[in-house]
Amino acid sequence: MEYRKIGRSGLYSSLLSIGGWKNFGERLSDTESQRIIHSAVEHGINTFDTADVYGCAEEAMGRAFKGINRHKLVLSSKCYWPMSNDINDKGLSRKHIRASVENSLKRMDTDHIDLYLCHRYDENTPLRETIRTYDDLIREGKILYWGTSAWSETQIASAFEICHEMGFEPPITEQAEYSLLEREHVEHNIQPLRAKYGLGLMCWSPLASGVLAGKNLDNTLAPESLLATYSNQLRNKYLNDKNIDKARRLRKLSKDIDVPMATLALSWLADGKAVDSIVVGVSSLEQLYSNLNSIEFKLNEELRQVLNSIFPSIPKGD
Ligand SMILES: NC(=O)c1ccc[n+]([C@@H]2O[C@H](COP(=O)([O-])OP(=O)(O)OC[C@H]3O[C@@H](n4cnc5c(N)ncnc54)[C@H](OP(=O)(O)O)[C@@H]3O)[C@@H](O)[C@H]2O)c1
Fold first, then answer.
1. Can 289 be counted among the known catalytic residues?
2. pLDDT value of residue 55
3. How many domains is the chain partitioned into structurally?
4. Which domain, by its residues, includes 197?
5. Ligand 1 touching residue 135 (CB < 6 A)
6. Residues of 230-251 as b/e, b for ≥16 C-beta within 10 angstroms?
7. Residues 3, 12, 54, 134: which is the catalytic one?
8. Which of 222, 234, 245, 299 is packed most tightly, with the most Cβ within 10 A?
């Protein structure tokens, strides 16, 4: 397993991380979750991503981590989304962050979270209040590092400015959607911040929730698939005519050269240094093993160019 530092921090993450959304605590039994997590660790994966809002994922992952040396794990969780109808049970206020971190610690049965992310930007809370709270949590040892998720380049830049001015710990990473089907935001807006601030990048939905692995490309929605658990709106974000057309072209290429679609999509991300860790979801051990193989696969320049021609990145401003 290759390990990469998250941004300019001293924290090493496995290049492949496992995400807990919908799979752990929801689609998978405890036995299946435990098998996947233990096997992932045996194969060198150290980073596991979850969030307060991922249903029962934190509890299920906490149970599955039993028997694994905690020091070997990099646990990432997040807060922002509403956890109840209570007016203060959402966002990035000091009150909600503190409540949320305590609840996540309990659910995962651990005394610290290695990486704690702001799951979105909170327009209703002063950024300084949010950052000050994250900085306090680091000083108290409840979290070790912090980061952002789905923040704009301007929001991230403001966070770095406040940290610089106030002497707060800066965010070490942005967790952003990045895949063959979703390139522009990261390539136009986040990559420059990597160069400027040493920001890390963890990417989510690297397989577009299964579309880039060939799921649901033939006009029927497999009821057992991850995409079948999504709302219509969210499903349409991944499974729309434009994406299906491109994914079918990837499927043809995959057949022609006898390399799995998921391997092409993941090795395109793994190759080079564009990302620090790829946060993938798996619903079986077979998918885990296949993805472990995928990040070892070396794309040659010709294949990379073919992928870039099927999935072009629209130039900034077009
Ligand atoms: N920060 C954020 O806002 C945010 C948002 C979304 C996700 N995330 C994180 O990113 C993680 C991954 O995102 P995701 O689950 O949306 O997308 P993903 O990793 O792109 O897709 C996961 C799905 O792809 C299919 N798959 C995976 N490996 C495969 C293989 N080798 N062969 C065939 N199919 C394969 C499986 O679908 P089936 O189960 O249908 O077989 C699996 O459930 C989440 O768990 C979460 O931790 C973060």
1. no
2. 80
3. 1
4. 3-207+269-296
5. no
6. beeeebebbbeeebbebbeebb
7. 54
8. 299
